[in-house]
Amino acid sequence: AVCCRDHQHCCPQGYTCNEATETCEKLLAPTPLLRAPTSPPRAPTPPLWTPPRPATSLRAASTEPGATVPCDATHSCRGGQKCCRSRGGSWGCCPFTQGSCCSDGRHCCQAGSRCTGGGWGCSPQRWDLP
């Protein structure tokens, strides 16, 4: 076990103490960002109004084969990914749509966790929850 700084609580080995919430959290390894490829030039902007299509033909962009998620005018990530600012002001792709980008500009964490220590780990994954 690991004793917490409050000298009243302990956590199982491999977990850290979160005194603010009185929980034990396991730091998961962060996921490295993937390089955001340069997008091909975009087609001209469509007119402001187009006739509606039948509802059965509409699909979310992320489900389309080869769909992209635009980061800026020249970079994009694949469908199902999230754009994150990487080092040097460029872009990286997090492989988790609902992930969180780390401040180090090199990593991200999956949904339900957040970056800690500038990208050293992802938390919380509490031992007392399924």
UniProtKB/TrEMBL annotation:
The Granulins domain, residue ranges: 4-17
Keyword Hydrolase on entry: no
Keywords annotated in UniProt: Disulfide bond, Secreted
Matches recorded under Pfam families: Granulin
A GO CC term attached to the entry: extracellular region
Bias-annotated ranges (Pro residues): 38-54
Keyword Disulfide bond (UniProt): yes
InterPro entries: Granulin (IPR000118), Granulin_fam (IPR039036), Granulin_sf (IPR037277)
Annotated spans, Disordered: 36-60
Subcellular location: Secreted
PANTHER family xref list: GRANULIN (PTHR12274), PROGRANULIN (PTHR12274:SF3)
Family that this chain belongs to: Belongs to the granulin family.
Protein name: GRN protein
